[in-house]
UniProtKB/TrEMBL annotation:
Domain ABC transporter intervals: 55-289
Designated name of the protein: ABC transporter ATP-binding protein/permease
Subcellular location: Cell membrane
Record-annotated membrane-spanning stretches: 1-15
Residues of the whole record sequence present: 325 to 618 of 618
Superkingdom field: Bacteria
Amino acid sequence: MIQLYIPLNFLGVLYREIKQSLTDLDKMFTLMEREREVADKPGAQPLTGQEHPAVRFEHVTFGYEPARVILHDLSFEVPAGKTVAVVGPSGSGKSTLARLLFRFYDVQQGRITIAGQDIREVTQASVRRSIGIVPQDTVLFNDTIEYNIAYGRAGASRAEVEAAARAARIHDFIESTPRGYQTMVGERGLKLSGGEKQRVAIARTLLKDPPILIFDEATSALDSANERAIQAELRSAAQNKTALVIAHRLSTVVDAHEILVMDGGRIIERGTHLQLLARGGRYAAMWALQQKES
Ligand code: ATP
């Protein structure tokens, strides 16, 4: 029996490893698919001075297809260590800003700079190393919770993974699962709620500790306790970082250095929360509506 068990067990491990590599490969191909859109310039050097970088969009015009312009002559700055929030209706171009900053695509006109350098002039790898994204819907691998968090930084120790999980306030939840950090998650493991997945993504990003943060708030409704918790975690994750927050709930943006209100690929209003309320325009109307709803 033991003779049979060993090869079967081995096959099981092999199967799991192949499956895992396939999941990773899948993800890699998706990324490569996008990477074909942009390429490093010959001789491109890594980004420099990105410890406390400002991010600037200067007269950016962009469309996924030449015939359809999505962003029209957009300019704004996220000063070093500050948070700028973007709000606006679905399809107004908010996530496109994040994709351009991560350089999934190149702009057609204008430029995007990090620490004063045009992101087309430096290596993609260095741009992506300096940015952490907390996406709307986090991809979890069919592996342990530990692996899924450690994915933020290759070679992270267990203690570092735990520290990140504590900061993202998901440690207690992990400890309550059947096998703690060794609990399998993903399609064939423990299913996590939208809020829990976003916390895993925040923990990953904290572990990566990039100077620039992009947070794409989940559109799916979280219960209000969960929502408040995520917002608190986000605030701590964004401390001292240059952060671009794509927000669906205005309560997330109240403290932002500047709020950009987008519509149809244009910034139609901008200012702090109080300035925009005083203006009595679109933002003030959105705020009044959300207050009524909650
Ligand atoms: P939401 O709040 O729903 O996430 P959004 O403001 O983030 O919306 P974007 O995702 O930036 O909007 O999309 C802006 C426009 O670009 C939309 O009209 C969308 O259809 C279009 N678009 C987005 N991705 C692509 C793509 N890969 N190819 C072509 N068009 C796209």
